[in-house]
Design a protein that fits this description.
It contains no helices and eleven strands. The protein is mainly β. A hairpin with a 4-residue loop joins strand 7 and strand 8. The radius of gyration is 13 Å and the shape is globular.
């Protein structure tokens, strides 16, 4: 069973950038599709994007397309979320998650990291 730990959140002004990291342990990292999700206060958790096991393909929500980039370093068991041109509406707790390629749901989640974008 894989354990996930996010880091890199913080406070940033609108238009700024942050890079989140998610370190995985306890499993074979290359067997997992990795996803990023976020949850703003009073809102449901939403999908941000995901990346295939090899890192060759990514998929993004329309709200972040062109501003956010997901990458992974399989040698370091780490997935990243590079966030550029941040907007106040990006303020949320960001979670990474893992799923085996056979399944459509994410059973493994990190604890989340807070991202706050000031206007």
């Amino acid at each position: 069973q894989v354990q996930l730990v996010e880091s890199g959140g913080g406070l940033v002004q609108a238009g700024g950038s942050l890079r989140l990291s998610c370190a995985a342990s306890g499993g074979t990292f290359t067997t997992y599709i990795m996803g990023w999700f976020r949850q703003a206060p009073g809102k449901e958790r939403e999908f941000v994007g995901d990346i295939t096991r090899s890192g060759a393909s990514t998929n993004y929500a329309d709200s972040v397309k062109g501003r956010f980039t997901i990458s992974r370093d399989n040698a370091k068991n780490t997935v990243y979320l590079q966030m550029n041109n941040l907007k106040p509406e990006d303020t949320a707790v960001y979670y990474c998650a893992a799923r085996l390629w056979l399944f459509n749901t994410y059973p493994y989640w990190g604890q989340g990291t807070q991202v706050t974008v000031s206007s």
